[in-house]
Write a structure and sequence with these properties.
Length: about 90
């Protein structure tokens, strides 16, 4: 199952906790027809999504993304301009 680093949890919590976001908003990760992953904010999961609640963060994974990310860890960083960068890594044992 996908895990989150502390940095990723903090960044996502900051984004989804903004005043204009509905309660329960999460980060949705879905695969597209090219096999790439799309990340979007979503007020709720879509039908068939796997829902992860981790460190006060909600992630919604479509079925293909859940399989692709099963052994991965999601990390995030914010650069000096305030842009968020997400990265995937192998889970540490």
């Amino acid at each position: 199952m996908l895990t989150l680093t502390e940095n990723a949890a903090a960044v996502i919590r900051n984004i989804t906790g903004q005043q204009d976001m509905p309660a329960g908003t999460g980060l949705r990760i879905a695969s597209n027809e090219d096999g790439a992953l799309n990340l979007n904010l979503s007020p709720e999961p879509e039908a068939g999504d796997q829902v992860l609640d981790d460190s006060g963060v909600r992630l919604f994974l479509d079925a293909e993304a859940a399989v692709m990310l099963d052994d991965k860890a999601l990390d995030a960083a914010v650069d000096a301009d305030g842009s968020v960068q997400f990265a995937l890594a192998e889970q540490s044992e």
